[in-house]
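Quick sanity check, Lichenan-specific phosphotransferase enzyme IIA component LicA:
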Amino acid sequence: MDTLSMDQVVMELVVNGGHARSKSMEAIKAAKKGDFEFAKEKIKEANEALNNAHNFQTSLIQKEAAGEKVEISLLMVHAQDHLMNAMTVRDLAKEMVSMYEEFRK
């Protein structure tokens, strides 16, 4: 990650965040149909994408903690918003999958 430009890091945050959000929405749709195994697999995929994004985010935090100035741009703010939105959707998806599963019992 050290060799990536700031633009590349921003894109990794956006791409992984978008992937996590999409997988979370797939999980909700699957749970609504009663396919809980598939829904849980999609949550797992969302978690993996968020972990990838978190690794890129952590590299920026470590750079700043080490005294290296990290440029904050509108694109970076957008990427962080995108990531936080993905995390929220994933958290809600987990709850909704559980809720739909409970309703089916």
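Posting the structure with no commentary besides this: Residues 62 and 68 are 9 Å apart (CA to CA).
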